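Quick check before the chapter quiz. The format below is the same one you will see on the exam, so make sure you can read both the input and the output lines.
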Amino acid sequence: MSSGQESVFSEYETDTSQTSKLLRKFKETPFVPIGMAGFAMVVGYGLYRLKHRGDMKMSLHLIHMRVAAQGFVVGAITCGVLYSMFREYVVKPKE
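Here is the expected output.
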């Protein structure tokens, strides 16, 4: 590459800190961090309830916890897809 030629990836080269990359990704896809946070909350609640499960078998408790966590993540992904479709097709930016 010649010294006078501008880099193709100049936007990514100047934006090198991890937090700025993370914030940029959160702005592009806001439902991914919501899904991750929901997954962590469901797992935390499931671990808390593990102490007070009573007669329930461990395997049944773990299956319920897994289904709840996966359901939250799938719901967040679905909301994210609907949100991006809404932004792209309904509220089109003027060109």
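If your answer matched, good. The chain has two domains: 8-54, 56-94.
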